[in-house]
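look at this record:
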Amino acid sequence: MTFMIKVPATTANIGAGFDSIGIALNLYLTLKVTEADRLEFVLLSDQLEGLPTDESNFIYQIAKRVAERYQVDILPPCRIEMTSEIPFARGLGSSATAIVAGIELANQLLQLNLTADEKVLLATEIEGHPDNVAPAVLGGCVIGHYDQTLETIRVPIDDLSFVTIIPDFELKTSDAREILPKQFTHSESVRASSVANVSVAAICQQNWPVLGKLMKKDLFHQPYRKALIPHYTQIEDTLADNVYGLYLSGAGPTMIALASQEQVNKHFDHWKEAFPQLDWHVLEAVNQGVSVK
């Protein structure tokens, strides 16, 4: 028995889509699973260095949790070769991909035959909200709401570049949440939700110029979290005339600019030269989520 689990990275929030909108991207967490006499994680990427290689590994803990959910006490032992292209604590869904990988690991080892909807619900219950885990399972853009029950709408994404700008420091989600306001007035809530509502409509119509404008008008998190990200305003000003818009991916610190391929081809080298201390990538949305071979 040998199989491969492949889970895409995700970008979440997308401006005003706080805790509710995510998009799968073409960076991957990959597990090669082989039957063995004992459990062993083999870490094959530098950024995985220091993670547990035994049962305390987060992915195994998720798999064990799923097994217990289905009244199974023991997971079959296996060797798991783990590779990741996704940086930790940068707002690209590294923990969500691990959750989805753990669910899929249990699904395969125990032959649970989980549906995609069941995987999304399990992952959302663990994560607390669907914005990262849902696209990691389903691919594309997923707009979701979770409050005892889960509702999701999936939208395929095509012909859009994600200019991904990664600082060289981590930003924990808990720290990024601390800086957010505890409440809004009614009028502030109406303004914030109207921005989010039209943002969703823009995504559904793939109207990227309108989405870009509205990302800058977000009131839920970006005005507060920008202060935690050095160079955010400078980068926004530098890219402003040549991208659709810039937003904080997840809790940050990664910033993503939405752009056309033509804009990227014309300006990408200049952007990199202007901010050489940052790690620049051009990513694409992927319309397939977790896969098994």
User: Anything to note?
Assistant: The chain has a mean pLDDT of 95. The chain has two domains: 2-156, 161-284. The first helix runs from residue 58 to 69. The domain at 2-156 is CATH 3.30.230.10 (Ribosomal Protein S5; domain 2).
